[in-house]
Amino acid sequence: MVFASCYAPRRFIIRSGRVLRPCVKKGTVPLAESVFHQTPVVPSGAAFYPVTDTGPARKYAFLVVPGFTLLAFSSAVDPLRIANQLAQKPLYHWRTFSEDGAPVPSSSGIPIVVDSEITQLDRDTTLLVCSGNHATAIAGPKGIAALQRHSRFGGTVGGICTGAMSLAKAGLLADMRFTLHWENQPGFRETFPHLTPTEQQFEMDGRVMTCGGGAAATDMMLSIITRDHGPHFAAIVSEMCLRHVMTGTERSQRSAIGAIIQSRNPGLISIVGLMLENLEQPLPMEDLAASAGYSRRQIERTFKASLGMTPASYYRKLRLDHARALLATTDMSLTEISTACGFESVSHFSKVFKSQFGCVPSKHASRQTVREAGRELVR
User: Fold this and answer.
1) Burial of 129: CB neighbours in 10 Å, binned 0-12, 13-18, 19+
2) Could you count the other beta carbons within 10 Å of the beta carbon of residue 350?
3) Which residues in the chain land under pLDDT 70?
4) Which of 6, 85, 167, 276 has a CB 3.0–4.6 Å from the CB of 45, allowing a cystine?
5) Which pLDDT value is given to residue 35?
6) Can you tell me the distance from the alpha carbon of 347 to that of 201, in angstroms, rounded to the nearest whole number?
7) Which residues contact 315 (CB under 8 A, 6 or more apart)?
8) Residues 6+ apart with CB under 8 A from 132
């Protein structure tokens, strides 16, 4: 199955397992911006909301990276489509790009055909890189160069899902508020220790916009539609997406700790929060208990009653889950991971990891995937 963007005039020929791009007239260099010369998509629909004084269509270029998530991609594109459909005017104009113009596989195995390879874009086009949760979900040299060039000449850039990793690689996130999917934030912090993502669903900071993917991509685009055409129109777009009217950027990507552990006990919630904040250098149980005004014996009883395990076991489980995430999203060595997760040695880390997940870290499936991805990047 292949998803094609709404206007994909280029035809691809599959031969001997390779995708051959159409020939370009000798002596010409195609610009990515040329695909915006095509008519914007304005689908028909039953619902209608008049919009006046629209001006020219605002342009969005989506650079998709192999392994990108379809949910995040479509959640960003469809609010723009719905806006055009409601207004029955070309409010927004979008096109899709890859680094070489070839179809790009998503994380679900479904590829999309893009409009063009990424080259030069006009400054008034917003360039968004959309990637997935793979350990190597970073644009290649051509994509990084396109992001740097676009930003350097005054264009707006952004990242969807883990797109912030490409922006960080391009050096565009220094002193900026930004975010990416919470699953990949631990690995991001280890890879880019000088950068700190927020836990918000999306961030808009000057000429940089980022979101955590999924529904957050919809909320980010709704905020743009609000800015461009007002809250009433954006509210109707939100209703068309079957989402309640957005409440703003104060919403965190993840549920509150109390909801996750299904407890309203403030002491328990406080202790679990401290555990999560201190994975690399675990706090003594006595310090955790004292922080909540409990004795060591009290927190033992509370954890067993609410979570079915001792606080030490729960703390170790959190650290092992963190280690598993780092195995899946970084190329850090086992020594680095064991240190980052508060284990005294690799041997001890491997022993408790095997007890929890049934295999040693070096043999874990996620680790094998990272190695295979690394070999692909070298080729």
Assistant:
1) buried
2) 18
3) 1-33, 135-136, 245-251, 254-256, 258-259, 365-379
4) 85
5) 78
6) 38
7) 275, 282
8) 65, 67, 68, 69, 72, 106, 107, 161, 162
Is 207 found in the same domain as 62?
Answer: yes
Closest CA to 188 of 105, 248, 104, 131: 131
- In DSSP notation, 317-367 reads HHHHHHHHHHHHH----HHHHHHHTT-S-HHHHHHHHHHHHSS-GGG-HHH
Please give the Cα distance from 313 to 321 (Å, whole number): 12
- Report the alpha-carbon distance of residue 281 to residue 143 in Å, rounded: 37
Can you tell me the distance from the alpha carbon of 253 to that of 178, in angstroms, rounded to the nearest whole number?
A: 13
Q: Which amino acid is at 323?
A: A
The boundaries of the domain holding residue 26 are 3-240
Other residues' Cβ atoms within 10 Å of the Cβ of residue 152: 9
Q: What digits encode the pLDDT tens for the residues 327-350?
A: 888 888 999 999 999 999 999 999
Question: At which residue do the structure tokens 């990424």 appear?
Answer: 118
- Length reported for the chain: 379
CB contact at 8 A, 109 and 73: no
**Contact call for residues 369 and 328 (beta carbons, < 8 A):** yes
CA-nearest of 351, 300, 287 to 323 is 351
Task: Map tokens 């290649």 to a residue.
Answer: 140
* Nearest alpha carbon to residue 99 among 138, 41, 72, 71: 138
**Number of domains within the chain:** 2
pLDDT for 367 equals 59
Q: Which amino acid is at 316?
A: R
209 and 285 within one domain:
no
Judge whether 325 and 183 are in contact, CB under 8 Å: yes
Q: Are residues 132 and 190 in the same domain?
A: yes
Where would I find the beta strands (DSSP E) of 166-253?
A: 202-205, 208-211
Question: Residue 175 and residue 107: Cα distance in Å, rounded?
Answer: 31
Please indicate, yes or no, if residue 250 is contained in any of the structural domains: no
